Amino acid sequence: MNNLGTIIGFTYKNKVKTKSFLFTTLILALLLTVGMNIPI
Q1: Whole-prediction pTM value?
Q2: pLDDT digits over 4-40, tens only?
Q3: How far apart are CA 23 and CA 14, in angstroms?
Q4: Contact at 8 Å (CB) between 21 and 15?
């Protein structure tokens, strides 16, 4: 069970370091912020 946690942590860290993941996260955060601030 300990090995599973290590593998998940390693994969997550590699995924977070990619530019596409950071770019997508930033775009989604901006869209969410804009969407919440638009008057109904």
Answers
A1: 0.59
A2: 989 999 998 898 888 898 899 999 999 999 999 987 6
A3: 15
A4: yes
